[in-house]
Design a protein that fits this description.
The complex is a heterodimer. By secondary structure, chain A is an all-alpha fold. Chain A contains twelve helices and two strands, in the order H-E-E-H-H-H-H-H-H-H-H-H-H-H. The longest helix of chain A is centred in the middle third of the chain and has 27 residues. Chain A is globular. By secondary structure, chain B is an all-alpha fold. Chain B has five helices and no strands. The chains are: A mainly alpha, B mainly alpha.
Chain lengths: 318, 98
């Protein structure tokens, strides 16, 4: 066994150890919303659970939390598997950052946010399946499963394209022609699902339209800051009071950064990939106003992308 | 060698912060206690109060609800209505207790 493999096993063991207290955790915050909980039984889990994986059989809280921790460990392994061909050490490092980053806790700990974690797993599995010709047959299943797990799973298609763009120089254009229309249909389906529900949700603060997008851009900068310096994590980030000047500046700088990463796509493809991944995976939050601008569990998928981008740094496309 | 040591140090720090965050997610009281410590919003105080009331700490809950009312927030009116409702529940349970 090579040293990086051993290190990966140690990191997995450390992650399991760090998350172990979760097994005795009580239902928290949205876990206790009556529509989710039916007594002490786990309510019907939307998405995959309804048919292929009926988690209603998990009557124990510890088992449900164990399942979440297992998915998180699997995601770390999938990140390592995706980056393995670019160097074992960097693959293990990227996986370790994902597994041990405190910003990932909110997508693992509360059972109510299980769909976010499962979505990351399904998308990473879809990317892994592109590694072999036979695996490609599973790609359509992965894309469908992503939308089934969560409405915002429609982002799986553009994320797959991004992955193919950076890893599979020749294949991404023909796939884009096939996946592109599917992404458009999927987005329309998402809008159809979400729009009737919008009127029942509390609009975030008093912002609307343009200012909502601008404040959301400020939230993206805050997410990035928390990724680099993960202090001050909270279930309830005070983000409603962001001033218009700050929001405008955040939107402007975010736009400039995205533009620069597109222009630098040949010089620094990993940077383009990382920025593109974050932009795509957070796009639903810019389009569909949720009651909160910043929720740490929304950062699970972007964090996985940033770890992949980190592992791809310095690697040429193809 | 330096790279390896830096990586170990980074992973160790991340593991400590994650372990701390996992303990915060253990129950509603610890979760909202940490939330109001980071950002003392009206919603945070309200939920912290509700968690304390659920745990039977009515005095603590009352103090939290008062903090929620005193917090200026864009959602203040909405929160204040919820706080007053919760205060009423706490006072009723207090009366029943005695």
């Amino acid at each position: 066994m090579k040293t990086p493999h051993l290190v990966l096993m140690l990191v997995l063991a450390l992650t399991a150890l760090v998350y172990a207290p979760m097994l005795s955790a009580l239902p928290t915050y949205e876990d206790v919303i009556p529509t989710f909980w039916q007594g002490w039984q786990l309510g019907v889990i939307r998405g995959l659970s309804a048919t292929t994986l009926n988690l209603q059989t998990l009557q124990s809280l510890a088992l449900a939390h164990g399942w979440q921790i297992g998915l998180h460990l699997l995601n770390g392994l999938l990140i390592a598997a995706l980056l393995e061909r670019y160097g074992l050490s960097r693959a293990v490092f990227a996986a370790a950052v994902y597994l041990l980053h405190p910003l990932a806790v909110e997508s693992v700990a509360p059972l109510a946010y299980r769909a976010d974690l499962l979505l990351s797993t399904v998308i990473l599995l879809t990317l892994v399946s592109t590694r072999s010709a036979w695996g490609l047959l599973l790609v359509p299943c992965g894309l469908m499963a992503a939308v089934y797990v969560k409405e915002s799973g429609v982002v799986a298609m553009p994320l797959l394209l991004l992955w193919l763009w950076i890893t599979c120089h020749r294949a991404w254009r023909p796939v884009a022609w096939i996946v592109g229309p599917a992404a458009v249909i999927g987005s329309a389906r998402m809008a159809e699902l979400y729009l009737p529900r919008l009127s029942t949700w509390t609009a975030p603060a008093a912002h609307g339209g343009f200012w909502f997008v601008a404040v959301q851009a400020a939230a993206v900068w805050r997410y990035l800051a928390l990724t680099i310096w993960p202090m001050g994590l909270s279930i309830d980030h005070a983000f409603d009071g962001v001033g218009q000047g700050t929001a405008l500046l955040a939107l402007l700088t975010l736009g400039i950064v995205l533009l620069v990463t597109v222009l630098w796509r040949r010089r620094a493809p990993a940077l383009t990939f990382g920025a593109g991944w974050v932009a795509v995976s957070l796009a639903p939050h810019f389009l569909i106003p949720l009651p909160d601008y910043l929720k740490e569990h929304h950062w699970g998928l972007p964090l996985a992308g940033l770890c992949l981008a980190g592992g791809l740094t310095g690697v040429s496309r193809g | 060698m330096v790279k390896g040591l830096a990586s170990i140090l980074l992973m160790g720090m991340l593991a400590i912060l994650t372990a701390q965050r996992v303990t915060e997610w253990h129950d509603n009281v610890s979760l909202w206690r940490s939330a109001v410590r980071v950002s003392p919003t009206a919603r945070g105080w309200l939920n912290y109060g509700a968690a304390l009331a659920d745990a039977g700490d009515f005095d603590g809950a009352m103090a939290c609800y008062r903090s929620a009312v005193n917090t200026a927030s864009p959602q203040a009116r909405l929160i204040q209505r919820a706080v007053l409702k919760n205060l009423d529940i706490v006072q009723q349970s207090d009366r029943r207790r005695w």
